[in-house]
Amino acid sequence: MEIRLSGVSHTYDDFEVLQDINLDIPDGRIVCIVGPSGCGKSTLLRFIGGLERPTHGDIVQIGDPPKGCLNPLTYIFQDFALLPWRTVRGNISLVLEDHGIGGAAAQRIIDDVLARTKLSDFAHALPKQLSGGMKQRVAIARALAVNPAVMLMDEPLSALDSQTRELLMDDLIALWTRAPFTAVYVTHNLAEAVRLGHSIVVLSRRPGRIREIVHLDRPLDERAYGDADLEAKQKHLWDLMRDEARAADAELMNV
Ligand SMILES: Nc1ncnc2c1ncn2[C@@H]1O[C@H](COP(=O)(O)OP(=O)(O)OP(=O)(O)O)[C@@H](O)[C@H]1O
Ligand SMILES: [Mg+2]
Question: 226-233 — which CB contacts under 8 Å span 24+ positions?
Answer without folding.
Answer: 230/194, 233/194
